[in-house]
């Protein structure tokens, strides 16, 4: 049903399920980092029964604004649905280098390794020293505690606690950033509010 409209080879993607009876097709991409699939539901959508769906299947953080891919739409025919599936796959291929790395754990870079003991004593938790672009830095694992809904918010709250419990100033952490367990950069930290508080 769908396969007759698919190329025989799709680089970085493989078919993991093709259920002809239930009209379901699923492809896995980039060693299981993503899945894209087609389903049919004539009861809910009789005019456009074929639905395209897409999920990121590895990592705890969204790596890209997937809404820009328009990978959640309805189509009238299997051919239209497969054509749009291939457009989404092409977009992922073209944009892949802009995606954030796969992240299973989030770490906060807290500056020079010489401050390791002070930071560890105050914050506790999983803290380590690692090399980042030739610099030896302190990294602390970030968890969604501190009443936070995001890892960035939790990181900012831990920095605030650190400055309240030590001689450190907010400016000491102006170069902080978030990274994954492999110490790949995933985002900066905006400390504007803390800087305002520290000078008030």
Secondary structure layout plus pairing:
Blueprint: E1 13-19, E2 24-29, E3 34-40, E4 50-56, E5 74-75, H1 78-95, E6 106-112, H2 116-123, E7 127-132, E8 135-142, H3 151-164, E9 177-180, E10 185-188, H4 192-198
Antiparallel strand pairs: 1-2, 2-3, 3-4, 4-5, 6-8, 6-9, 7-8, 9-10
**Helix-strand makeup class:** alpha+beta
The low-confidence runs, each spanning 5 or more residues with pLDDT under 50, are none
What overall geometry do the principal axes of the alpha carbons give? elongated
The first-to-last residue Cα distance is 67 Å
In helices, the fraction of residues equals 10-25%
CA radius of gyration is 23 Å
**Total domains, how many?**
2
Order of helices and strands: EEEEEHEHEEHEEH
Count of DSSP-assigned helices:
4
Biggest β-sheet strands, sense, barrel? 5 strands, antiparallel
pLDDT averaged residue by residue = 92
User: How are the strands ordered across the major sheet?
Assistant: 1-2-3-4-5
> Per DSSP, what share of the residues sits in E-state strands of 2 or more residues?
25-35%
Tally of DSSP β-strands: 10
């Amino acid at each position: 049903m769908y396969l007759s409209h698919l190329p025989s080879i799709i680089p970085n993607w493989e078919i993991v399920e093709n259920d002809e009876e239930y009209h379901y097709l699923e492809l896995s991409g980039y060693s299981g980092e993503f899945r894209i699939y087609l389903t049919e539901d004539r009861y809910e959508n009789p005019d456009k029964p074929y639905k395209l769906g897409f999920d990121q299947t590895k990592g705890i953080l969204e790596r890209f604004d997937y809404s820009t891919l328009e990978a959640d739409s309805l189509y009238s025919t299997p051919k239209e649905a497969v054509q749009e599936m291939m457009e989404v796959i092409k977009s992922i291929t073209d944009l892949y280098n802009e995606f954030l790395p796969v992240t299973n754990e989030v770490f906060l870079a807290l500056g020079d390794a010489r401050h390791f003991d002070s930071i560890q004593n105050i914050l506790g938790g999983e803290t380590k020293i690692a090399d980042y672009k030739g610099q030896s830095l302190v990294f602390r694992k970030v968890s969604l505690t501190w009443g936070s809904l995001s890892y960035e918010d939790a990181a900012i709250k831990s920095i605030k606690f650190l400055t309240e419990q030590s001689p450190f100033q907010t400016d000491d952490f102006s170069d902080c950033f978030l990274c994954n367990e492999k110490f790949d950069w995933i985002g900066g930290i905006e400390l504007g509010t803390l800087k305002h508080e520290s000078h008030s």
